[in-house]
Write a structure and sequence with these properties.
Layout (H helix, E strand, L loop, with lengths): L12 H6 L9 H16 L6 E5 L6 H12 L14 E5 L2 H8 L1 H12 L8 H11 E3 L8 H8 L4 E5 H6 L2 H4 L4 E4 L2 E4 L2 E4 L6 E7 H14 L7 H24 L5 E5 L11 H10 L1 H7 L3 H14 L1 E6 L8 E9 L11 E5 L14 E5 L9 E6 L5 H4 L4 H18 L10 E4 L4 H5 L4 E4 L14 E5 L6 H11 L1 H6 L5 H12 L6 H20 L13 E6 L5 H14 L5 E5 L3 H10 L10 H11 L5 E3 H8 L3 H10 L1 H10 L6 E3 L4
Parallel strand pairs: 1-12, 1-13, 2-4, 2-7, 3-4, 7-12, 14-18, 14-19, 15-16, 15-17, 17-18
Antiparallel strand pairs: 5-6, 8-11, 9-10, 10-11, 20-21
Length: 664
C-alpha cells in the first residue's frame, strides 16, 4: 500500500461494498436497498428531520449498519482514508450491541473468506483497527460510566442502548458527539437508531421510584459532600408530600380513577432546586451506581412539581394488578438536536404504520419497492382470545387454551422435520401453560429483534397485543403535545370525567384512538410474524400462520382488513375458519345439566365418542347401548346440536349405518 495518498475523501459505494460480508449471498433487492440507504447516509445533511428507513424485516439492517461501521473506519483497507467518520449507533437489544461491536468474529470470518491474502493489502490490519475503534457504553459492568465516557473520546464509533441514551443528561450526552483522532478533535455527526427511538415517553413514577431515589441519596452521597443533608432532607419532605397527596386521591374514591393532578404548593422539588441539582450532577456517578434511573426520574419529578401530571389508581381485585402511580408524557424532540450539526437516522421496518412516527420532524423513506413476494398463508380462527378471556384463571380460559392446543396439534401432526416446528406467540401470562405442550413459545413484547426462529414455517398467534385505551391516548399525546398540555387547564373533576370517557371509548377521541390502537397492533403483529422463514429473502418454504381472535367484532374485522391490505399485494393467502370443533365440544362438556342431572344427553354422546380410539368403526346401536339413550333421544341430540351432527356427518362411510372415527 506504499504510495497511496492519505488525503481524506468522501466515502463511496465502492468503499461500502468492500466491507460487505463475503460469505453471504445478497438478494438483488437487498443490494438496491443498501445503495439507496448508503447514498442518504452520506449525503442527507438536513438536520431538521429525523430520516427513517422502512425496509421490511429481514432486509438486513444489522448487516448494513455493521458494514457502514467498517466503512467509516476503513483506514487501512480500501481507499486508506486517514480520518475515520465518527458514528453513534443506538439499539434496543444488548445482544445486538454485542453483535455490532464483535470485531473479532468479523476478523475470523474475513480470514476464512480471504484465505491466504488475508494478511496482505492491509485486510488483517483493518479488522484489528476496527476492534480498537469501537466501544460499547454499558451499565452492567464494573467499569464506572465516567471512565467509559473518557475512553469513548478516543474511539470513532460508540454504541449504547436506547434506554441509556435517553437517560443521559444533556451535558453527558453532548460528550457522545466528540472524539479525538491522532490528537485532532473530530465530531460524530451521524447517529443511527436501529429500532424505534423514544420520540416521546410515558414515564411512570410510583412509590418504589421515590424510595429508590431517597435510598440512592443516602447511599450514594458520601459524608464529604457539601449540602448532603440538605439534599436528603428536602427530597424526603417532597417525597412524603407526594405520597400523602397520592393517599388522599386514593382514599377519595372506591373506584379506579385517572385524573390530572397539580400540587397547590410551590412548583419545585426543594426550596432551592438549583443547589439540589448541583449536588446531584456533581455526584451522578455514585448516585447512578445506586439507582440507574435517578437522573431521569428527578428531571421528571421536577416537571411534575412545576406542571402536574396524571394520577392513576387501579384498586386491587381478583386477577387484577394494583397500580398507583403518577404518569408523565415527555416530548423528547430536544434529544434529536434538530437543526444542529447532528443528523439522526432510524431503521424500523414498521415506521410507515407505527403511530409514534406521526411527527412533523420525521421523514419516512418507504422500503416498499424493495419487498419480494411472500409464500405465506394466514388462517384466522374465529374465537374470543382477549387477555380478559384467556388469562383470568377461570375454567373456561383453560378449556379455551386446551382446545387451541389440540387444534394446533392436529394441524402439525403430519409434518416432518422442521415442518413440525411451530412457534407459539401469546400473552406472557400464558407462557407456562403453552410451554407444557409446545417446545417453542414466545410472548408479546419479547420477540422483536430476535432471529432464533428464521427457519420456522409455522406460527400460532394467540390473541393480540392490546393495551388499555389510556395507553393509546398517551401515544397520541406524544405526537400531539398540545392535547396533553390542555389537561393542565382542566379541574380535577373535569380531567376525571375526561379520562372516564377515554377508558369507556367515548368522546371526541374515540375514532382517533381506535386508529392508533389498530396501527399499533398491526405493527406488533408484523414484527412477530417476520421472526419466521419469510424474513429470509430467498425463502422458498410455505409459511403458515394461524391467528386466533374474533374477527366478527368491529375492531378485529378492521384489523383483518389492514393485515390483508398489507400482505395481499405480495401474494399472501388468507383463510377464515369458524370456532374450532375442539372448543365447541369443550363448551358442551362444560354446560351445567338442568334439574340436578349428572350429564346432558349431548355430554353422554361426547363422553362415549372421546373414549373411542381413532380409526375405530361403529354403529348407532353401539352408542345407544353404551349411553343408555333411546334412538329418539339420540336423534334429538343430533338434530339440535350442530357440533354433534357434524361429528357423525364427518364419520359417515359408504356403508349405510356404519361410521368410522377419523384417525388422529
Amino acid at each position: 500500500m506504499e504510495g497511496v495518498p492519505m488525503n481524506k475523501t468522501e466515502l463511496t459505494w465502492d468503499d461500502f461494498e468492500t466491507y460487505l460480508p463475503e460469505n453471504y449471498e445478497f438478494d438483488e433487492k437487498q443490494i438496491e436497498f443498501y445503495k439507496m440507504v448508503f447514498e442518504i447516509l452520506i449525503h442527507n445533511k438536513d438536520t431538521s428531520k429525523v430520516t427513517c428507513f422502512g425496509g421490511r424485516p429481514g432486509i438486513g439492517k444489522s448487516t448494513l449498519i455493521k458494514t457502514f461501521m467498517h466503512c467509516c473506519i476503513g483506514d487501512y483497507f480500501y481507499g486508506r482514508r486517514h480520518e475515520p467518520l465518527g458514528l453513534v449507533v443506538i439499539t434496543d437489544s444488548i445482544k445486538r450491541l454485542e453483535e455490532l461491536s464483535n470485531g473479532r468474529k468479523d476478523r475470523e470470518e474475513a480470514a476464512k473468506c480471504w484465505g491466504e491474502i488475508f494478511e496482505t493489502f492491509g485486510i488483517e490490519e483493518h479488522y484489528k483497527e476496527f476492534e480498537k475503534c469501537v466501544i460499547v457504553l454499558r451499565s452492567n459492568t464494573s467499569v464506572p460510566f465516567e471512565k467509559q465516557l473518557s475512553e469513548q473520546y478516543y474511539k470513532p464509533i460508540v454504541l449504547l442502548s436506547t434506554q441509556r441514551y435517553f437517560m443521559l443528561s444533556e451535558q453527558v450526552r453532548e460528550q457522545l458527539f466528540r472524539f479525538n483522532y491522532n490528537n485532532k478533535p473530530l465530531k460524530r455527526n451521524i447517529v443511527i437508531f436501529d429500532e424505534c427511538p423514544y420520540f416521546s415517553e410515558t414515564v411512570t413514577i410510583n412509590s418504589k421510584n421515590l424510595t429508590d431515589i431517597e435510598s440512592a441519596l443516602y447511599e450514594g452521597l458520601s459524608d464529604e459532600v457539601e449540602n448532603k443533608k440538605f439534599a436528603i432532607r428536602e427530597f424526603k419532605i417532597f417525597k412524603d408530600r407526594l405520597l400523602s397527596q397520592m393517599d388522599e386521591k386514593e382514599d377519595s374514591t372506591k373506584d379506579n380513577v385517572t385524573l390530572y393532578w397539580k400540587d397547590g404548593r410551590y412548583p419545585t422539588i426543594t426550596p432551592n432546586d438549583t443547589l439540589f441539582f448541583e449536588v446531584v450532577e456533581k455526584n451522578r456517578e455514585s448516585l447512578t451506581q445506586q439507582y440507574n434511573a435517578i437522573l431521569k426520574d428527578l428531571q421528571c419529578l421536577r416537571e411534575i412539581a412545576e406542571n402536574g401530571a396524571i394520577f392513576n389508581f387501579i384498586k386491587k381485585k381478583k386477577n387484577d394488578k394494583y397500580e398507583r402511580s403518577i404518569i408523565l408524557v415527555r416530548d423528547n424532540r430536544e434529544s434529536f438536536y434538530l437543526g444542529k450539526d447532528k443528523k439522526f437516522f432510524v431503521f424500523d421496518a414498521t415506521c410507515d404504520i407505527d403511530p409514534r412516527y406521526d411527527l412533523d420532524y420525521v421523514e419516512i423513506i418507504s422500503g416498499e419497492k424493495y419487498n419480494k413476494p411472500l409464500k405465506m398463508t394466514i388462517t384466522n380462527v374465529k374465537m374470543a382470545t382477549s387477555k380478559n378471556v384467556l388469562c383470568n384463571g377461570k375454567k373456561q380460559s383453560f378449556l379455551t387454551t386446551n382446545s387451541i392446543a389440540n387444534y394446533l396439534k392436529n394441524k402439525i401432526h403430519y409434518g416432518i422435520g422442521k415442518q413440525r416446528k411451530i412457534l407459539i406467540v401469546t400473552y406472557s401470562n400464558l407462557f407456562q401453560r403453552f410451554s407444557k405442550e409446545f417446545d417453542y413459545v414466545g410472548y408479546f413484547g419479547n420477540l422483536k429483534g430476535f432471529n432464533d426462529f428464521k427457519d420456522f414455517c409455522k406460527m400460532a398467534h394467540i390473541g393480540m397485543n392490546r393495551y388499555p385505551p389510556t395507553a393509546y391516548f398517551y401515544i397520541y399525546c406524544g405526537c400531539n403535545m398540545d392535547i396533553y398540555h390542555k389537561l393542565k387547564d382542566m379541574t380535577e373533576e373535569e380531567s376525571k370525567d375526561f379520562f372516564k370517557g377515554i377508558n369507556l371509548n367515548l368522546g371526541e377521541y374515540q375514532n382517533i384512538l381506535d386508529a392508533v390502537m389498530l396501527r399499533c397492533m398491526l405493527a406488533d403483529f408484523e414484527q412477530n410474524i417476520f421472526r419466521l422463514a419469510i424474513r429470509n429473502y430467498g425463502n422458498t418454504d410455505d409459511v403458515h400462520i394461524w391467528t386466533f381472535y374474533n374477527n366478527g367484532l368491529d375492531v378485529y374485522k378492521a384489523l383483518s382488513s389492514m393485515i390483508e391490505d398489507r400482505y395481499k399485494p405480495y401474494g399472501a393467502v388468507f383463510e377464515y375458519e369458524d370456532t374450532p370443533e375442539e372448543l365447541k365440544i369443550e363448551k358442551i362438556k362444560d354446560r351445567k345439566p338442568p334439574g340436578g342431572r349428572k350429564m346432558t344427553n349431548a355430554q353422554k354422546v361426547i363422553e362415549w365418542y372421546e373414549k373411542l380410539p381413532g380409526g375405530a368403526g361403529y354403529e348407532i346401536k353401539e352408542i345407544l347401548k353404551e349411553t343408555g339413550l333411546t334412538n329418539k333421544q339420540f336423534q334429538k341430540v343430533k338434530d339440535k346440536n350442530l357440533v354433534i351432527a357434524n361429528i357423525f356427518n364427518t364419520d359417515k362411510t359408504d356403508k349405510k349405518g356404519h361410521y368410522c372415527k377419523k384417525a388422529i
